[in-house]
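Lab manual, section 2.4: Encoding a predicted structure.

Procedure: take the sequence of the chain (264 residues), apply the prediction step described in section 2.3, and record the output as structure tokens. A sample record is shown.
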Amino acid sequence: MNDAAQAVGGTGCVDAVSVSGTTFGTFFELGGRGAMEALCQTGLDYVIIDTEHGCFSEESVADFILAAECHGVLPFVRIGSVHRPYVLRMLDIGARGLVVPNIRSVEQVERLVEAAKFPPLGKRGYCPNRTTGWGLRDRSANVESYMAESNRLSKVIPQCETAEALEHIEEIAALPGVDGIFVGPFDLSIDLGIPLALDDPRLLDAVERVLAACQANGKESYIFAGTVDHARLWASRGFDSVTYGLDANVLMAAYKDAVNQITG
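Recorded output:
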């Protein structure tokens, strides 16, 4: 997210969120609008609503997205598949970006872009929905303008967390319609045969390869960090964005530390 991010969402709660330098987000696993609103008070730039691992209905995701928009935080969604229904539903609800796991081929990403982007980049289906004010907002009067705006603001972010994705990362990063790459170092280390060896030179070389592919193609670079030290490391290496932790893990760590201080 190198430029100002402007909301497409149907509420009008937020017109712009200015970001500069490294941006930071987290994964949203616990659920609950209150939890989302609390996260939005912390200075995070975005929250990734995890429908791959989290048990969220589409109705609850729509509520989380609305809460994030109203507090000036970008609502991203991690979906479980590149299949068209997964892609369309979350974009129509108002997801500002799709993080897509388990990528293993260039063809998968091409299908993803085809479903997620309007022409000329893809073949996304158009339907008046909350992102157009149900067809009544001025921007929907010019469909071509709306499609171009959506293509620019609704990010497509494949994850590099498999050996196959890494093998083809230069091709994937070069695809029109791909806005960024998200490195999942935990799963990538497992797939490379070095489970959770996050400081292993082979994993660090893989991460640098993804970063170089993003930079060479003008694409945004994202990476997950499970610790503050790793978050600082990836930011210092030049990643555009670092996604720190899961909300549940951060919550537990904070309370565990507090309990230890009180009882110790």
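Check your result against the sample. The chain has one domain: 23-263.
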